Amino acid sequence: MLHSNRSTPGPAEGCLSATLSGLKGTTKELGSSSARTTEAQMLSLYRRFVATAILITLTFGTFWGVSILTKAATTRSFGAPDPAQIQAHAHAQVFGWIGLLIMGVAYFLYPKFKSVDSRNTKAIVASYWMMTTGIVLRAICQPFSENALAGAAVAVSAAVELGAAVMFGAVMFGTYRRSQNARHISDVFIFTSIAWLIVALAINLFTMLQVALTGNPIVGEVWNLRRMNVEVFGFIITMILGVGTRILPRLLGLRDMKYEVGIIVAGLYTVGVYTKAFGEMQSLGSLLICGAAALYLAEINPFASSARNSTASSDHLGTWAKVAFFWLIASGAMMLSADVYELMTGMAAPHAWVGAYRHAVTVGFITTLAVGIALRTAPLFHGTTLHSQKLVTVTFWLLVIGNLSRVVFQIFTLTKHPVAYAVAGMSGYLELSALLFFGWNIYKTFSKPAEVTEKVDYRCVLFAPTPAR
């Protein structure tokens, strides 16, 4: 019998305790030939989603964004780039980069959370092709949608993406219904996020139909802002908070969130997102969002030392998570200050300030945490070790310096100083380099043969007990 005096078991002990007790149904199913085949299929699909997400951010996402930012820097005006290109690029980042990453991880991991086998691989493959096709069509065609054929294409792309989102929700709900596990607070966040995803893509279909019918490639400011709030705060951050309640306590040695506290957080946050996106008092929505996020952080405390958990003390994720949640706090404070400015002056906050806090939340929080978690979990899922820890360090500092430069110097562009524009423009190249190194690290990791052992098996890490309160 293996015992340890540590408060939290390490990977091997986790296999002998939490994995066998928490995954009884799954471990039985994995013993059959058909289940092993399904597991291999799901791992292959997970890699496909992740690889496509990285490819999209390195083309239509971050790369395109760098070209847009370069134009803004060289002209010393953030209003110079084509708004249709900005919107198409942002759509590719939200749904092609983070959206596909979320879908791939959810399809692969959620059945393990619920202790059931993976099913509906045909629907998963269909949702992958539908979402990917829609994203590529939108990116290529929106800037040219004054043309009737291109306009029709963006409308079709929106309909296909909405269909993919509904299919994603159906597969996930089917997994939930088949489980006999007790409800976990992550379930509430995950399905709230999926509901917001469907709402976001329904708005997207509405706006793309307008583009097709009017021949105007630029989505109007009101609906564009509503969709952005639903996409970023509703879909993406809600999903991150939900999955975070499940995996961050295991990976970082943090405490589990109490179900009752989680319900309060989810309720406040959801009302805040609705109010900010559709209500008359957007400042109230911001306040509710920030209040819910503060309660979430107080409950799991990601800034606590991770040394209690041997699975986390030797890897990078603790640092990445601390930086990401710092930017969540900073972007929330900046968003609230923008709302206060509007309330006091009756005028919209400066574009440079708004753009800075949006970048702080999308890159500083979302991308930093997504990349950090992917670098930690991708080798676990694949059953091997990460290709290069040195590239992790390089990726981290490029992303940190790039994001900090963008946020700080975009604000300084309010002074109209040419150095502020130059540094803000340079920041995009740093972030693109970070994602290139990240993509190469993941590619080389996936290229390695799987060597599943107790030390790298994800079941040993993600289902280990968490510290007692």
Description:
The chain is 78% helix and 0% strand. The chain has 469 residues and is an all-alpha fold. The radius of gyration is 22 Å and the shape is globular. It starts with 10 loop residues before the first helix and ends in a 7-residue tail after the last helix. The model is unreliable at 1-31, 307-314 and 465-469 (pLDDT under 50).
Summarize the structure.
The protein contains 15 helices and no strands. The protein has 469 residues and is mainly alpha-helical.
What order do the helices and strands come in, and which of them pair?
Elements: H1 11-22, H2 24-29, H3 33-75, H4 83-113, H5 121-141, H6 148-178, H7 185-214, H8 221-252, H9 259-278, H10 282-300, H11 317-345, H12 351-382, H13 389-412, H14 418-447, H15 458-462
Counted beta strands: 0
Distance between the ends: 25 Å
Largest sheet: none
Low-confidence blocks of residues = 1-31, 307-314, 465-469
Based on CA atoms alone, the radius of gyration comes out at 22 Å
Structural class: mainly alpha
Strand content: under 5%
Summarize this structure as a short list of keywords or feature phrases.
469 residues; mainly alpha; 0% strand; disordered N terminus
